[in-house]
Automatic annotation (TrEMBL):
It comes from Romanomermis culicivorax. GO terms for biological process: arachidonate metabolic process; lipid catabolic process. Keywords: Hydrolase, Lipid degradation, Lipid metabolism. Gene3D superfamilies: Cytosolic phospholipase A2 catalytic domain (3.40.1090.10). GO terms for molecular function: calcium-independent phospholipase A2 activity. It comes from the Eukaryota. This is PNPLA domain-containing protein.
Length: 157
């Protein structure tokens, strides 16, 4: 079975954090911004029977695996709980409809633009907080720690 990165890690933020820890193990994470590609409003869940069938179809199992693997919001929830306050931010606008990745029709692009503008308008405070956090200069102590860690890395301590 062939699987692409989108199925295995549809929200690769956790993988990126892991790679950062591997490259800079002594450096605390200052800010993480996860940029989503948009999501649909939650649809009502189908009711499940009181007693599950003993065996479900292969299609049902495959469908549940894909839904679980492509759920970007689970990664968001976990990172939001694990990282310190004011460190992790996620932007992921609601979309009015589902879009195909290769859809370049003018009306589709216009609707995407409207969805994006609505998200920016509703989340102005959040976006300003992200910008302020990203532009925040290092404190003297942080800069000193960075210098010490750099020297330790260069001289093998």
């Amino acid at each position: 079975m062939h699987q692409d990165g989108g199925v295995l890690a549809n929200n690769p933020t956790a993988i990126g954090l892991h790679e950062c820890r591997q490259l800079w193990p002594r450096t605390p994470i200052h800010c993480v911004v996860s940029v989503g590609t948009g999501r649909m409003a939650h649809l009502p869940q189908h009711s499940t029977p009181a007693v599950e069938p003993r065996y479900s179809s292969t299609f049902d199992k495959l469908y549940q695996a894909v839904v679980s693997a492509t759920d970007t919001e689970k990664v968001h929830t976990i990172l939001n709980d694990l990282l310190p306050p004011n460190t992790y931010y996620r932007t992921n606008p609601y979309m009015t409809k589902s879009y195909n990745l290769d859809d370049t029709a003018p009306d589709t692009l216009d609707q995407m633009t409207l969805d994006g503008k609505l998200y920016v308008r509703k989340n102005e405070a959040k976006l300003k907080a992200i910008a302020l956090r990203l532009m925040q200069p290092k404190t003297y102590i942080q800069a000193l720690k960075d210098r010490i860690n750099h020297k330790l890395a260069c001289y093998g301590y």
